[in-house]
């Protein structure tokens, strides 16, 4: 039986049996990827260039856009290349790199979303202390902690996963390398060690979820006490997008990593993984721009400036 030392490459899941359908999937992935690049790129540029957006909330949003760009760039380019060239292969090293970067970026994003919940809690519930609690140094430290925690988690999971002996071949039932799919290829019983690491990480992320829920309960109570309807609208416009992003990540991530094997199927795994790895990076810019007037104005100004520069160089 093959083991991890004899596996030099993995075979990813093919979306279709014919070249025509493969090209259709390539076009679909390309459209989603370009939309994610455009949306997150606009947020990055708008926040960097507009001095009105140099606040803690938009600093964290800039970090979120960077993580989203990295996340979708980890999975889709390889899937597009495989669809275009009608192949399924990914090298052993490439598979390990995909898992490393995907876990790093997804976990860092969730820690960052926890920090963003704290930012909204302080802004709405303790506005007089906002400047002292969320100064530039504190914001940089919290963002660095989110990135660092994600990286440490990724190194731990990747090293642990690829130290397991593989006895079930090299066919991965997913369009990118994912820890649950690699564990299916491991020898019977060997996956329990990685399962323990996954449970530990899930426990930490569950603690983040509890913190987010408590923060939003306090935020909701504070917003409902606001006498001004305009103030309530502004508070909801900055909080609801964040809550929508958190809900999407938690529901799809838990479904992907914690669902019982008895209800697992290639089609279900494919949909769930697509929802947590591809959809959030593509729709996050839309979610935040729809509810945030300041960000919409900054993006509009940026686009108008770019158009004028092309007309009048």
Features:
single chain, 313 residues, mainly alpha, 76% helix, globular
Set down the secondary structure blueprint.
Blueprint (H helix, E strand, L loop, with lengths): L8 E3 L7 H31 L6 H30 L3 E3 H34 L4 H4 L2 H26 L17 H6 L7 H33 L4 H30 L7 H12 L1 H13 L1 H19 L2
Antiparallel strand pairs: 1-2
Helix pairs in contact: 1-2, 1-10, 1-11, 2-3, 2-10, 3-5, 3-7, 3-8, 5-7, 7-8, 8-9, 8-10
Pfam family, one: 7tm_4
Main location: membrane
Membrane topology: Multi-pass membrane protein
Domain tally: 1
Low-confidence stretches: none
Task: Give the neighbour order of strands across the main sheet.
Answer: 1-2
Please identify which CATH superfamily we are dealing with: Rhodopsin 7-helix transmembrane proteins
CATH architecture: Up-down Bundle
Report the structural category.
mainly alpha
Largest sheet: 2 strands, antiparallel
CATH first level: which class?
Mainly Alpha
- Percent of residues in helices comes to over 70%
Question: Number of helical runs?
Answer: 11
Mean pLDDT: 83
**Coarse morphology:** globular
First-to-last CA distance = 65 Å
Element string (H = helix, E = strand): EHHEHHHHHHHHH
Strand count? 2
Question: Gyration radius, to the nearest Å?
Answer: 21 Å
User: What percentage of amino acids are in beta strands?
Assistant: under 5%
CATH topology: Rhopdopsin 7-helix transmembrane proteins
Transmembrane segments: 23-45, 57-76, 96-118, 195-217
Function: Odorant receptor.
Domain G-protein coupled receptors family 1 profile: 39-288
Organism: Anas platyrhynchos platyrhynchos (Northern mallard)
């Amino acid at each position: 039986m093959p083991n991890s030392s004899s596996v030099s490459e993995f075979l990813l899941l093919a979306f279709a049996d014919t070249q025509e359908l493969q090209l259709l999937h390539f076009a679909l992935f390309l459209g989603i990827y370009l939309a994610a690049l455009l949306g997150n790129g606009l947020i990055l540029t708008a926040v960097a260039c507009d001095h009105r957006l140099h606040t803690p909330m938009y600093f964290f949003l800039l970090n979120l856009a960077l993580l989203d760009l990295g996340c979708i760039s980890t999975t889709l380019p390889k899937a597009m290349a495989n669809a275009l060239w009608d192949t399924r292969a990914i090298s052993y090293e490439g598979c390990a790199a995909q898992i490393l970067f995907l876990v790093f970026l997804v976990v860092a994003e969730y820690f960052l979303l926890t920090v963003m919940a704290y930012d909204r809690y302080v802004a709405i519930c303790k506005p007089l202390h906002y400047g002292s609690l969320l100064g530039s140094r504190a914001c940089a430290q919290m963002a660095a902690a989110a990135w660092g925690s994600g990286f440490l988690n990724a190194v731990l999971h990747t090293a642990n996963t690829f130290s397991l002996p593989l006895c079930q071949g090299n066919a991965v039932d997913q369009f990118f390398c994912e820890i649950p799919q690699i564990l299916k290829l491991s020898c019977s019983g060997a996956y329990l060690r990685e399962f323990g690491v996954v449970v530990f990480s899930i426990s930490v992320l569950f603690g983040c979820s509890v913190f987010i829920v408590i923060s939003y309960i306090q935020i909701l109570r504070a917003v409902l006490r606001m006498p001004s309807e305009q103030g309530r609208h502004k508070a909801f416009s900055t909080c609801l997008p964040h809550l929508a992003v958190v809900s999407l990540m938690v529901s799809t991530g838990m479904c992907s990593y914690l669902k019982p094997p008895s209800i697992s199927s290639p089609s279900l795994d494919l949909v769930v993984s697509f929802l947590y790895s591809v959809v959030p990076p593509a729709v996050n810019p839309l979610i935040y721009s729809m509810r945030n007037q300041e960000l919409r104005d900054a993006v509009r100004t940026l686009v108008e400036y770019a158009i004028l520069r092309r007309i009048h160089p």
